[in-house]
Design a protein that fits this description.
Layout (H helix, E strand, L loop, with lengths): L1 E5 L7 H17 L3 E5 L5 H13 L4 H21 L3 H28 L4 H8 L1 H16 L4 E4 L18 H17 L3 E5 L2 E3 L5 E3 L5 H11 L4 E6 L20 E3 H9 L10 H7 L3 E5 L8 E4 L10 E14 L9 H11 L6 E4 L5 E7 L3 H11 L1 H5 L5 E14 L9 H11 L4 E6 L5 E7 L3 H13 L11
Parallel strand pairs: 1-2, 1-7, 2-4, 3-4, 7-9, 8-10
Antiparallel strand pairs: 5-6, 9-10, 11-13, 11-14, 12-13, 14-16, 15-16
Bound molecules: adenosine-5'-diphosphate, aspartic acid and magnesium ion.
């Protein structure tokens, strides 16, 4: 039993979908029992979200244009992929119905002048509801018995719209009752990634990039032998190949290492993907749809011994918040109050660093939340600011966290020295740093203007030097 997830580029146009169909057909020839999870065609979710936002801001034209663009995009792909005229027509009607619904929704959003997270989830999930039936029909045209399934029927979530959490027990129940029988009857189901619904049937989404997570949840409920994430690169590389062209595929990573990389911005895997896999010990493999026999990465429980640093990742669009003041020294509770205020505005803290002098606390939040965080802190510390116990609450925008990940760093001396020497020689200023107690991750904060150079020089220091042991690369 295998679960295969295909990302946006793997279903981005007719050629890509034809390639995806070949991968599925070849896999099916080896293992009869497979479940397929698909993303929306690339660019579709962005277009849906942006049109809904524009509608709320008073603009009608963007959603009217988007309806036509999306209609053409899906039907153009269908023309070459779906052999039967009748099937093509049924698919065309389905797309028209979804897009009419989209236009009606955007029209209401436009009239109300407001877009709620709940409303946005209905709109943003429509892309998968158009790609899944297309992929299923393309499979049937190639002789694979397939049917699409709306994950709203099986993926039960809470009502945290925009970032809903799947509820495992009811989801696995529905997988047993609804999905498993399809597979046992020889049908290859194509399930919409990214989307779900509450117990009472209100549509939700699992967060941007969440199809990976969908596949992992369903794979776990199905007790899959492997969860396969098919994308547009040869597995997980030692760095984002868009930043480091010399980056190479890592043959194996532990769950822990891959989770750190995903958390710190390696977009190739949604950060929550590994949670369901870890629970059942299911291997997760990352493969390239456009190079199916090429290198891939497998993520398992076992840590791989060789290699100090496994990979370098980065998260952009961040703000470093500094709470500074000589009067903070020795005053108990400042840190607790700082993070309570941040939690009260539901902002996520990505990294914390405190100098031992206790004269400042600094932490990193996403840029789009930094104004709320600053305001919350200024309210919380109004008295201390007036009394000058705290001198200022000072945001530094446009920073990037660069994370250096690898369990082989644990207990190995000289890693930090090599790291900072490489950055120093290249003139990169490190604004703040933190090391996890597991010692499998060192995170640095650098300016946006320096971050590409930072990733490149760290990669050179740990992967392109003969004196440093590297992990198994392919
Ligand atoms: P999909 O649409 O298939 O889900 P994504 O765009 O979400 O694909 O993720 C794949 C992208 O992740 C790659 O094209 C690559 O640019 C980026 N990426 C970032 N870091 C890494 C890394 N360490 N290894 C591989 N790809 C990475
Ligand atoms: N289509 C969704 C997105 O663009 C989910 C995904 O691709 O994983 O965020
Ligand atoms: Mg993705």
């Amino acid at each position: 039993m295998l679960t295969l997830k295909f990302g946006g580029t793997s279903v981005g146009n007719a050629d890509a979908i034809a390639q995806t169909v070949s991968v599925i057909a070849a896999t099916k020839a080896q293992d009869q029992n497979i479940a397929v999870v698909t993303s929306a065609m690339s660019g579709v979710t962005d277009l849906l979200v942006n049109s809904a936002r524009a509608a709320a801001a008073g603009q009608r034209q963007p959603f009217l244009d988007a309806r036509d663009i999306l209609h053409d995009k899906h039907l153009e792909a269908a023309r070459t992929l779906i052999g039967s005229e009748e099937e093509r027509s049924v698919y065309g009607q389905h797309v028209t119905k979804q897009l009419d619904f989209f236009a009606r929704l955007c029209s209401s959003i436009n009239v109300l002048g407001e877009l709620t997270p709940r409303g946005l989830d209905v709109v943003s999930g429509l892309g998968e509801r158009m790609s899944a039936p297309l992929l299923a029909a393309a499979l049937r045209s190639r002789g694979v018995n397939s049917a699409w399934l709306d994950a709203a029927e099986i993926m039960v979530t809470d009502d945290n719209f925009g970032e809903a959490a799947p509820l495992l027990i009811p989801t696995c129940d529905r997988v047993q009752n609804r999905l498993k029988p399809m597979i046992e009857q020889g049908v290859t189901p194509v399930i919409t990634g990214f989307v779900g619904a509450t117990e009472s049937g209100i549509p939700t989404t699992l967060g941007r990039g969440g199809s990976d997570f969908s596949a992992a949840i369903l794979g776990s409920c199905l007790s899959a032998d492997e969860i396969q994430i098919w994308t547009d690169v040869n597995g997980i590389l030692s760095a984002d190949p868009r930043i480091v062209p010399q980056a190479r595929t890592l043959k194996q990573l532990s769950y822990n290492e891959a989770a750190e990389l995903a958390y710190f911005g390696a977009k190739v895997l949604h950060p929550k993907t590994l949670l369901p896999a870890i629970e059942r010990g299911i291997p997760v493999r990352i493969l390239n749809t456009f190079n199916p026999d090429g290198p891939s990465t497998v993520i398992t429980r076992e840590p791989q011994k060789n290699g100090l640093v496994k990979a370098i990742s980065a998260i952009r669009d961040l703000t470093l918040m500094n709470v500074e003041g000589r009067g903070m020294m020795g005053v108990p509770g400042i840190a607790a109050r700082t993070f309570r205020a941040v939690a009260d505005v539901k902002a996520n803290v990505l990294m914390i660093s405190q100098a031992s002098s206790e004269q400042s606390i600094c932490f990193v939040v996403r840029r789009h939340r930094s104004d709320d965080v600053q305001m919350a802190l200024e309210t919380e510390f109004e008295r201390e600011l007036t009394l000058r116990y705290i001198d200022r609450i000072h945001p530094v925008h446009n920073v990037v966290i660069v994370a250096v990940v690898g369990s082989g760093m644990r207990g190995t001396p000289g890693i930090a020295g090599r790291l900072f020497r490489s950055l120093g020689n290249a003139g990169v200023n490190v604004i703040a740093l933190a090391q996890g107690s597991s010692e499998s991750n060192i995170s640095l904060v650098v300016d946006r203007a320096d971050f590409e150079k930072a990733v490149q020089v760290i990669h050179r220091a740990f992967f392109q030097s003969r004196s440093v042991p590297t992990p198994q690369l392919v």
